Amino acid sequence: MWLNPEEILLKNAFKLWLTEKDNEYFVLQRRRGYGEGGGGLTGLLVGTLDTVLDSTSKVAPFRILHHRPDSQVYWSIACGVTKEEIVQHWDWLQQNIMRTLSVFDSSDDITSFVQGKIRGLIAEEGKSSMVLEEDPEKFREALLRFEKWFELPPQEKLVTYYSCSYWRGKVPCQGWLYLSTNFLSFYSYLLGSEVKLVISWDEIWKLEKTANVILTESIHVLAHGEDHYFSMLMHLNETFVIMEQLADYSIKRLFDKEAFKKEPALSDPMQITKRGLEAHAKSAQFRTFFRLPNEENLLEAHESFLWVPFCHFNTLGKICLSENYLCFASQDGSQCHIIIPMREVVNVEKPDSSSKALTVCVRGKRAVRFSEVRDYQRLANSIRSRCGISPSPQHSASSGVIRGECQSLINHFEDNPEDVTLMVGQKDSSKAVSTEALMTVFHPQDVENLDPKMLKEKMKEQSWNIHFSEYGRGTSMFFTRKTRDLIVRGVPEALRGELWMLFSGAVNDMATHPGYYTEVVEQSLGTSTLATDEIERDLHRSLPEHPAFQSDTGISALRRVLTAYAYRNPKIGYCQAMNILTSVLLLYAKEEEAFWLLVAVCERMLPDYFNRRIIGALVDQAVFEDLIRENLPQLVEHMTDLSFFSSVSLSWFLTLFISVLPIESAVNVVDCFFYDGIKAILQLGLAVLDYNMDALISCHDDAEAVTILSKFFDSVTNKDSPLPSTVQQASVGHNDNSSRLNVDISELIREAYEKYGNIRSEEVESSRKRNKLYVIQTLEDTTKQNVIRVVSQEVKFSASNLDELYNLFKRQHFLSCYWTMQSPALLHHDPSLAYLEQYQLGFQQFSVLFSLLEPWGFCTTKSTLSLWVFRLIDENQDGLVNFKEFCWAIDTLCCGSFTNKLKFLFKLHLPPAFDLPEDGVIRKSPERGRGKVDLQAYLKQWQNEILKKEETIKDLPRINQNQFIQFSKTLYNIFQGDPEEETLYRAVAHVTSLLLRMEEVGRRLQETSSPTEPTKPSGASAAEEESSAEDASSPPESSDTTSSNNSQDAGTEVDWSFSFEQVLASLLNEPVIVRFFERPCDIQHKLAQARVAQLKLKVN
Length: 1100
Fold this sequence. Notes:
globular, 7-stranded antiparallel β-sheet, 26 strands, alpha+beta
């Protein structure tokens, strides 16, 4: 590897280096302790220094230096891991540089020329791969170490590296941590003790920062049941974030390919960089905080002050700019933020360069002022360019008018704070598919009704109107602590739909996709899928007691929204609980608004909740358990197993408490959810448990605890709800309300915010990432246990061997996915399929793993025999093999009886294995996980499997001439390299000759008994027997040289054939063959070898 020329002094360096070659201008040196005579104490000391110290020499045992005869100064210009590599560089210098150097008169010119040439070579090499790295020179050195130490496939992309200590028990090993796209790797070499660790990201169960008495701060990694601790990191937080990103990246790419496709920035595993991961993490945090569409990315961030209206103060915070939004969030505890869509911006002004301020004017005669922006000029230009505001001459007149309007607005605003009418925005009056929200249709408000509840509702509306007048309404509204206080007190019925749209960010989705919902409804109408069938079944189970869903109006709207969403997002389709949530959304929002609210909930606010494995809900339940341990220690002491709360709280998370609370109380919870996200649900869950603490501690079993919580939820009321009794559900099915103490939902929510409001959204997101690894690995482990339980009934392998075999099979599936997104195995992976079908191998992946595990070494990775085995075990001929099929093949060859092994080899030379094109192409590739599932076909398939009788040797067809010749060659291939190879060859030749004679005798007897049939001349028969015997009994060089895999028509001649019984009986007469096939196979040793060699035999 060429190095950027660096000046070094060799006064004491010769103690560590030996000169191998030299000439007038260059020296090739070898590191002491490497190569010949490199053992002993010298090798130990040098090896330790090379690992601990951060220099190129620590792994490059060879180097080339440039020097001048008149100077003691040398320049390092190249290094190499092997002698061949460094000699190649030396030869290049001899051929391309040495001849040119004789032209120069000055030694300084010679050095300048050499340095320039080497830098040119480095620049040429780095154009493709190193251009994105912060320090290409150091990164190239680290890459050299990484490739040498771990010997991973060259496609593996190193992302970053850190110096750290790895703890083996209580002993720290100082070394280097390497983080690459698919692996976490560590290397240490101290006084002859080498530590090498390689963990795949998809095998990690837990990743967290920890601290204890010995380790003040460290990173804990749990994989394969083993704990690994890394400490002494200079940048521990940075390291942990990168590790977290890579683990999450791997999980998404390998387990959730649909979600991964939505992130084009990380679509190519070969282009992942540290800088790219950091930018991706910041963008994800930015989108989550401001509830922005998934397409938005954080482009710029600037510290500044924002002038908050009517509070008369500037709040310190950060301006965040994306493709379509300008956002601000305070950092001084005032909890103030604002989201300005670029489509709303009218103009951007810089009123005063001395204060580094700029003013953003938005529609509705409103203005937002930022000050003390360090790079305000560039920010102003960025906003202008993204809004399409041009300072060109043709717009100068209108710009002048707008500039004057904005400036007068600012002046008026500062001088007359009591004049609030200018700050009131206009609501968007876009048309929806449905005319009104269902609550407006089925429960219109009576303006003349002056009962206490309606008066309180009017007071709430008045409070919100005052808030709107002060902080704006609609998009670009200021969100402050006062906004949250109003939310906690309850949202007026008339404003609920509008505020849900605003807080969730759905208002922006709808504004940027005009007509989308109508188009999707038209396209989805009339479609018939599994999702639509489930939707039809659940329509009348959605709030059946509410008048809106006792009529065709509500049911039709619900059907359209759910069907449209299933059409938009077939990965989710339809999941139970979506109907309950959508019903509530339709009560307070117009139909199109309800659709976009559902999009916001399913795709942003509750990611991975509504799919077959409900991973998102399980993750949040794990987060909930962590919060219980932290905030309710008394409960934890009494109920050590918190899995009970996971089971009982699943409906809380999936339906946002709608399924357990009366509808008039549940909507208050939904208010808080749309403002604060999942944090609001977690807080309320803690408050519910805290409220029932004494009762839960005194209960004796889970059933009693469930009863306690059920009664509590029945007692929750909303005393301020203006809804009539026909709509309210609090008293449905319960006649003992008078004897039970009711709990007001507003008080419960207020208590939740007071006690647990200090839970930060950032901590929740961090806990989500940490628990997601564990949840997914738990689901994967459940899948493995179910698969092993099914397969173990049909094979002789032990449970531990099956466990190891499954890990190898799954890793082989992933190896085809690590370095590309287009592998057939990844494209066909669908977690919603049956356990056995989730991980499957195509022919290329199968051939690699099978060649590592089959007992006789007769199948290479690209042999025809591998293809025949693949076709034989691929029962449904879809070009993919599942774990059960793979295990059957390995079990038969390793643990089967002599008869079963021979039958397997015999069937390899019969159709369908032997009689198909040798292309290995997937011929049938059905769509998986989509469309309407034919349940009848599945039931029929299962019935056939149950009724399938055991195959006997009499059921096997006869093997013809070409097939038998290939069968004999396969036997020769199997015996090749065996200690008794010659004896086995002679035995096969004897069996072949015997079978041919038996066939000839049988044919002649048949001809004698049938004199009317035409017979061949005896000469022809003798010649055929002789040539056939020669073909079948001569050992071939390789079975891959033959292409006689198809049964050929022998023209007018009659082919001879054998039954399996004849072949078996003949081979049983050869003890040496019987001994060979009955020889036990050490499957444990095979599995261990395969585990080591699997990465090196990666499929290209």
